[in-house]
Amino acid sequence: MRFKVLGPLEIRDGHGEPVQLGSAKLRAVLAVLLVSANRPLPAGRLVEMVWPDRRPPTAIGALRTYVSTLRRDLQLNDAPPRLVTDAAGYRMDVTAADLDLLAFEEFTTRGEQALRDGDPLAATELLSRGLALWRGRPLEDVAVDADPNGRLVVAEERRLAASETLVEARLALGQHTELTAELRALVEENPLRERLWQQWMLALYRAGRQADALAAFRRLRDRLAGELGTEPARAVRDLHAQILAADPKLDLPGEVSQGTRTVVPRQLPADAASFTGRSTELAELADLLRGDPDDRIPPIGAVDGVAGIGKSALAVHAAHLVASGFPDGQLYADLSADSTAIGALGRFLRALDVPDGGRYDLTEAAGRFRAETATRRVLVVLDNATDAAQVRPLLPAGPGCAVLVTSRRVLATLDGVRHLHLRPLAPSDSTTLLGRLAGADRIAADPAAARKLVGLCGGLPLAVRIAGARLAARPTWPVRTLTDRLANARSRLDELRADDLDVRASLQVGHRLLAAGSVEERAAASAFGLLGLPDAADLSPPFAERLLGAVDATPVLELLVDAQLLESPAPGRYRLHELLRLLAREVGAERSVDERTAALTRAMRWQVATAWSGYAMLRPGDPRLETAGAWAAGGTTFTGVRAALEWFETERANLLASAEQAAATDGVPDEIPGELARALFAFFHIRGHRADWIRLNQTALAVARRTKDAHAEGFAHRDLGAAYELKGDFDQAAGHLRAGLQLFTEAGDDTGQASCLNGLGTVYDSLQRYDQAADCLSQALSIARRLGDPHSQGVYLNNLGPVLGQLGRYDEALRYLAESGAIFAALGNRRGQAAAVTNLGEVHEAAGSPGEALPRFTAGLAIFRELADEAGQAHCLTRLGLAHRDLGRVDHALECLRSALAICERTDDQRGAARCLRLIRETLRQAGPHGKGQRLSANE
Questions:
Q1: Angle CA(641)–CA(643)–CA(645) in degrees, nearest 5?
Q2: What's 83-149 look like in SS3?
Q3: Residue 170, SS3?
């Protein structure tokens, strides 16, 4: 694991992928521990930091749980990074390779020492690497003050000091001309740092700008007099006198006249003054370009990414950072204007003072270029390369050289390359960039609008730059004005245009190149328009095949990935950047409305059919399957429960998006939202996701009401009742269940009535109104027996058993649960069996026999783990904790309850998490009877 605190809190695993932590408190605990790295932090002090306003009574217990979760989820048990608990408190053992704060301190210390040792080149490299680790204000997204010992305050001061030391090193290397603009920005940001003013004056003087250097001194003197009533320091006044006298001591040692100096090409474009973020990518490129002294070939870095993602800006910025390491020059070529390399080679040879460099053919020019660079240290930047064939002749020969290439496509056939795929800019960095362009005060005036604005730009730096430029040109506009204009998806690309910058034009280049290619590439360009139709977050090949009406969509998808019109974030998954989706929809608009509607319907019908296939795997024998009819045909089938759950989990956001898009799209069948809602019932009941469950069924309910489909409306009410009951909102649950019961009664639907009665029974059970619960569940069971519906009988018996146990009717309860388990065994419904055996344990516990309950809970837990059913696992672990507590096994009880709490937090089960925390507190106090009232419903 690698941790970053010099900016928003960031965690990356060993593969460089981001790791997400669930709760804000969990992130706060980690942040405090990281800032106190390698130093013990007492538990009490940690609690004060995490709960600064009001310390809850359960704080210490919650802290132990958070620490346990961090150890487990971030694998902090063995070698560093390691989270240690000892008598002194908690300690996070990390190295500079694990934590950017330590890496910054190490690079800065080594850089300062290198300058003291007379090695400004090494100092520049080390200090640049350290400063590149900063991504913003430390821990800016953590809600608490996570700096217990003032370490971050020291780090921020050291950052500024390191910037000054870096300037000193670069002045020693003769980079005064490049530094003049950078130092101007630094003194404006830090107007009272006299050392920066002193360095700026010296850089201006060495760049031949004596008058500007003297003017800078007058500005500093006026500011100090006006704000502090003081004069500049003695060192600054002495420098002013030396500049007035043109003292030769101010000249760079060893500097020679321009007439005798060897021509050294400096072709890099100007660095972007507003460049923001990309610290990880910059560090990786800097390490690569500086090379390994033992290597015999120059290092090559290739940056690829979608149009407008900032490839050129990153390459130029990285090149400027390492330029001092290439004393023989820096060569730059924008290859978008050259179909072959010959034009760029001619310019390179002339820059290297080779006479008649333009008279060679391609082979001769490439050979001469390799000969000229064989003994030099030259940095070559090749921007906007088309393919590997264009790049190969432009590669230098000397091991002291380095090459940085940017391209929309991955240059996979280029040997010896380290590829860097550029992703969208982080929201915090996008907001910072917007502020640098439009004015930080305008962003601070409405930060919510600014965050929404950069979100609408999709993290595309080109789009953010255009937005910033438009705001800068309209100083009277609040940020929200442009945000509101961009919120209209139909006109967003029209808005993202300013002078010669145009997001649409930039994105269109890749599509036009593809459309002018081979037969296969033209087919992919045509398919691009259909792939933009769905609102889905990403696409799978089977979904794309239905959308395109193709037998195998993978070749088309891969061609679009190669053209950077589509991303492949994981094997078998494809997605469009939001702005590319808008372009795809413009391309797709060239097709008829009927063609577009038919494509969406094909894809959504496949989603519905596959969801029903998953439902059948999760609940074999459920009568709900009989209602699906033709909607269940044509989907993907599953090999087991885990495969079905994995598909549902992967596609969850897409299924919700499809339901909402179907509800809003004329011509798409009105049944789709309701079918999806009913087919996802089993998944949501197992995995939680209460908010999504409610949102999906509210969409289904709205469509059912609009189309006056009473049966679909009844089902939506029934499923909303189940979702709200598990969420703990019993009033909402009962209201929806009564509405559903009325609709099913009016329609004469006995199965629907029984289902709603069962739901009402579980609500009354949760409210501990056991007589009413038993009455509703008994009515539901009577209907199911009359209809001869074994699955529903198993469900209602399972839910009725624990209620009877609470009423003291133990024998009857045990008999019902045994019958339920037998029914589910005959149906092959493993989850039903797990629920039945777990509820048997609850009845034994209610009867005062925790020893009899324990093996039932253990058996239920084993099945739920087999099925990857997290809701069932959390319930069994909670019941096991209570049984262990009743038997006096406090340690075992706490272990089970904390494991249950971790699952509840991970699945956003707020009701379950609150209950676990309460039971943990009670167990720690060893007082009070354990709570009843939350039953595990078998299947509904």
A1: 70
A2: EEEECCEEEEECCCCCEHHHHHHHHHHHHHHHHHCCCHHHHHHHHHHHHCCCCCCCCCCCCCCCCCC
A3: helix
Cα separation, 260 vs 257, in Å, equals: 6
Structure tokens at 546: 């239905």
Please name the residues in contact with 286: beta carbons below 8 A apart, sequence gap of 6 or more: 125, 128, 129, 132, 318, 321, 322
Task: Kindly report the pTM of this predicted structure.
Answer: 0.68
Q: Are 542 and 651 in contact (CB under 8 A)?
A: no
Burial of 116 (0-12, 13-18, 19+ CB in 10 A): exposed
* 103 CB-near residues (< 8 Å, 6+ apart): 96, 97, 130, 133
- Which sign does the torsion angle of CA 886, 887, 891, 893 carry? negative
Euclidean distance between the first and final Cα of the chain, in Å? 41
**Beta carbons of 883 and 857 less than 8 angstroms apart:** yes
Which helix (H) or strand (E) segment holds residue 781: the answer is helix 770-787
927 confidence band (pLDDT: 50, 70, 90): very low
Cα–chain center distance at 396: 38
Question: Which element (helix H / strand E) includes 68?
Answer: helix 59-74
> Helix, strand, coil proportions of the chain in percent (round to 5)?
65, 5, 30
Task: Write the pLDDT tens digit of every residue in 324-354.
Answer: 888 888 999 999 877 678 888 988 998 888 8
The CA distance from 229 to 227, in Å, is 6
Long-range Cβ contacts of 522-526 (<8 Å, 24+ apart): 523/556, 524/556, 524/559, 524/560, 524/563
Q: What is the 3-state secondary structure (H, E, C) of 747-762?
A: HCCHHHHHHHHHHHHH
Distances (CA, A) of 114 to 117, 118, 121, 666, 811: 5, 6, 8, 69, 83
Residue 696 is encoded by which pair of tokens?
């999906």
Q: Which residues of 187-216 are buried (b: 16+ CB within 10 A; e: fewer)?
A: beeeeebbbbbbbbbbbbbbeebeebbeeb
Joined tokens for residue 9: 């809190």
Given this model, what pLDDT does residue 140 score?
85
- Angle of helix 210-227 relative to helix 194-206, nearest 10 degrees, comes to 160
3 state SS for 223-250: HHHHHCCCCCCHHHHHHHHHHHCCCHHH
* Residue 266 DSSP SS3: strand
The token duo for 165 is: 């030391």
Q: What number of other Cβ atoms are within 10 A of residue 507's Cβ?
A: 26
Could you tell me where the beta strands, DSSP code E, fall in 548-707?
567-570, 573-575
d(CA 865, CA 788): 31
Pairing of strands 417-421, 300-304: parallel
Torsion of CA 678, 680, 685, 688, to 10 degrees: -130
> Computed over its alpha carbons, how large is the radius of gyration of the chain?
34
On the question of pLDDT at 865 being above 80, the answer is yes
Q: Residues 755, 780: contact at Cβ < 8 Å?
A: yes
d(CA 789, CA 298): 74
Q: Please, which residues bridge with residue 330 across strands?
A: 266, 379
Residue pair 539/532 in contact (Cβ under 8 Å)? The answer is no
- CA angle at 202 for the pair 131 and 439, rounded to the nearest 5°: 50
- Is the preceding omega at residue 929 within 30 degrees of 0, hence cis? no
Q: What are phi and psi of 817, to 5 degrees?
A: -70, -35
Phi, psi (rounded to 5 degrees) for 538: -150, 175
- pLDDT tens across 514-531, in order? 898 899 999 999 999 999
Q: Hey, what's the torsion of the CAs at 317, 321, 327, 331, to 10 degrees?
A: -10
Annotate 868-925 with DSSP letters as a single string: T-HHHHHHHHHHHHHHHHHTT-HHHHHHHHHHHHHHHHHTT-HHHHHHHHHHHHHHHH
